[in-house]
Amino acid sequence: MNTTRRGFLHCAGFCLLARGGLFFPSPVWAAGERWRQGVSLFGTLKYPPGFTVFDYVDATAPTGGAVRQSALGTYDNFNMVVAGLKGNLGAGIDLIYDTLLLPSLDEASSAYGLLVEEVAYPDDFSFVRYRLRTGARWHDGAPVTPEDVVFSFNAFKKNSPQLSSYYRHVSKAEATAKREVTFVFESPGKRELPQIVGELKVLPRHWWQAKEQSGAARDVGATTLEPPLGSGPYRIKSFVPGRSIVYERVKDYWGKELNIRRGCNNFDELRFDYFRDPAVAFEAFKAGYLDWHEEYSAKHWVTGYDFPALTEGRVVREEFPIRNVGVMQGFAFNTRRDKFKDARVRRAFNFAFDFETINKEIFFGQYQRISSYFQGTELASSGLPQGKELALLEMLREQVPAEVFTTAYSNPVAGSMHAARKNLLHAMKLLNDAGYVVHDMQLMDPATREPMEVEFLIANPGFEPPILIYKASLERLGIAVTVRLVDPVQYANRLRGWDFDIIVDFWTETLTPGNEQRDYWGSRAADRPGSRNTAGIKNPAVDALIDRIVMAADRAELTAATQALDRVLLWNHYVVPQWSYDKLRTARWDKFGRPELMPKYGISAFPTIWWWDARRVAKLG
């Protein structure tokens, strides 16, 4: 191993003094390595060392009061390590933990030290080391240690399928000084890894390795409803399994005076009440049992808010622009199943989808059709590939659809009987080209003589109306369609076993995509339970473009690789794109204050930078 490049490893393990104590050797610094207050993927940090407070918070915000919010479904687990694999994680559980770094909400790709006071990495990004703050401590008063960080990393990498993939390029974590932990990467050049590792939620090793009050050993790889020990601004105060969770602000929280925490986490209590049906949750909001509501139904946003509290001004409706993420939401095919392996079949389903009619009849024309996996960002592909993007795709020409080079991607457009009929005729041609024939009004697979039957699996009843309109179009093609509405637990279990035909899925994309793309679309994630590759994509061209994204040296390379990936995903028709709205719709009882300047990339940033406004509450009576 090159100890000049990785100078912190020049002593194998801990070195013993003659007295029997332990010491860590002074590190040999690598090229470009220096201590810094945070990291930025591309560009410089906005805030200088020693800054007082983020621009988008009010450092004088009062503390107190409570917020009541809703959560859908149920929960049976407080252990984040196995989230997505076992059980249903309780809403808000991340509030009890601190991370190594904390993102800034008015920068696209910057994060500052939270549990750590400084971070260092070399020019080749072959490792990163963090120096923990001396005052960082758990809620029981014990200090946060490098051993806690190492334990947390190993626990997540071993037990979480999603994070195992996310951390796949991190070879190991080790304590390299009394307050220092170092992460070694499998190879240099991956500039996002210092920030990725900084997102790690740190767990208390001593708590997880101790026993429960019952005397049973705790297991970090199992679900639990024992409230975990944390280090963050909140802790669990009380809960009713599956029904509610109440968090209380930690009055002596160790980090409350940090510049990155000032003006944040102002509420004394945060309560989450669970509802099976979003319509029931909204009725609870109208009745004053909930304080904050996020609206995801366009129809309901237009027609459902005519009630006295709103007209009297006691309830406020507000939309917040979404600038920090792009989104792909669509009907995702399970390509592990033979009937969806042919891209022509998947494309035919898109031609059968009359978005324009659905948008008019159900959504009051509020939505726009999604035409990119990075919708709403500069990373979305458009037109024909050029420049660096074209050069990347040329290297993969034999592995990608020919249309990538010849045709700008667009979705079919309907909205009228004539246009819909034309689209269905083209869909039938695509199905015929794929070998399907119609017999006795049923679309048949000539190889198996089996009829084409599909099931739409959903857990949200709000998707039923558009699917039923879609169902009628598919049935005109001879496809037998069923819509299966199941409870959230059954839905999660079926997804873990890849037991579905078509689901409604969505993927949010940051302005700096990276290693998470492997979990979304990478071949290794296709058969891994709990991964986000629900479509089951196994495509060497997609894998190659993800590698180029992860290894991008600058913003221009990242943009070109991302746009190329977007184009290849689109032309393989892994989903039928649905619709998007570039704002978050919210309603709230007028109890709260917020800063004048809201963060550009924080959407609503509720409740993090808001506060309880006693004067407004008094006016409500």
Which helices and strands appear, and what pairs or packs with what?
Elements: E1 15-16, E2 22-23, E3 38-40, E4 66-72, E5 101-103, E6 110-113, E7 116-120, E8 127-132, H1 146-159, H2 161-166, E9 170-177, E10 180-185, H3 193-198, H4 205-208, E11 234-240, E12 244-249, E13 269-275, H5 278-286, E14 292-295, H6 298-303, H7 308-311, E15 315-321, E16 325-333, H8 343-351, H9 355-361, E17 368-369, H10 387-394, H11 403-406, H12 417-433, E18 437-439, E19 442-445, E20 450-451, E21 453-458, H13 464-476, E22 480-485, H14 488-496, E23 502-510, H15 516-521, H16 540-550, H17 555-571, E24 575-577, E25 579-580, E26 583-589, E27 592-593, E28 611-612, H18 614-620
Parallel strand pairs: 4-13, 21-22, 21-23
Antiparallel strand pairs: 1-2, 3-6, 5-6, 7-8, 8-10, 9-10, 11-12, 12-13, 14-26, 15-26, 16-23, 16-24, 17-25, 18-19, 19-20, 27-28
Please report the distance between the alpha carbons of the first and last residues. Answer: 70 Å
Strand order of the largest sheet: 22-21-23-16-24
How many separate structural domains? 3
Total of helices: 18
Task: Work out the helicity level.
Answer: 25-40%
User: SS-based structural class?
Assistant: alpha+beta
- Give me the Rg, rounded: 26 Å
**CATH fold group of the largest domain:** Dipeptide-binding Protein, domain 3
Q: Which residue ranges are poorly predicted, with pLDDT under 50 across at least 5 consecutive positions?
A: 1-22
Major sheet characteristics: 5 strands, mixed
What is the arithmetic mean of pLDDT? 92
The backbone outline, from C-alpha atoms, is globular
User: CATH top level of the largest domain?
Assistant: Alpha Beta
Strand content: 15-25%
Number of strands: 28
CATH level-four homologous superfamily name of the largest domain: Dipeptide-binding Protein, Domain 3
**Could you say what the CATH architecture of the largest domain is?**
Roll
